[in-house]
Amino acid sequence: MSNNNGQKLAGKIAVITGGSSGIGLATAKRFVEEGAYVVITGRREKDLNEVAALIGRNVTTVVGDVSRLEDLDRLYAVVKQKHGHIDVLFAKRGRG
């Protein structure tokens, strides 16, 4: 018998790009409901802060543009420091 209370992502670390709106935000919320800890990245700090407050738990935000290698390096450094690894990567396609 598992002790994850039926949560499919219990204990998993998920990174979500473009998680401050639309399908990225919906995915972040659902992943947390399913027991994951989510790390959300996006370009606008204000939007990310609002998303973190909305979700309320098990979330870290990292400001950055995934098209910039230095921002990806910073994202990975945050994930590695806080969690050590990534279990799920949800890469939302942006407009541009």
Describe the structure.
The protein is of the alpha/beta class. 39% of the residues lie in helices and 21% in strands. It has helices at residues 22-33, 45-55, 69-82, and strands at residues 13-17, 37-42, 59-63, 88-91. A four-stranded parallel β-sheet has the order 3-2-1-4, sandwiched between helices.
Provide the fold topology.
Layout: E1 13-17, H1 22-33, E2 37-42, H2 45-55, E3 59-63, H3 69-82, E4 88-91
Parallel strand pairs: 1-2, 1-4, 2-3
Q: Which descriptor suits the 3D outline?
A: globular
Please bin the fraction of helical residues: 25-40%
Q: Termini separation (Å)?
A: 47 Å
Order of helices and strands: EHEHEHE
The fraction of residues assigned to DSSP E strands is: 15-25%
Low-confidence stretches: none
Q: Largest sheet, described in full?
A: 4 strands, parallel
Mean pLDDT: 91
Short structural summary:
The chain has about 100 residues and is α/β, with parallel strands linked by helices.
Notable characteristics:
96 residues, alpha/beta, 4-stranded parallel β-sheet, 3 helices, 39% helix, globular
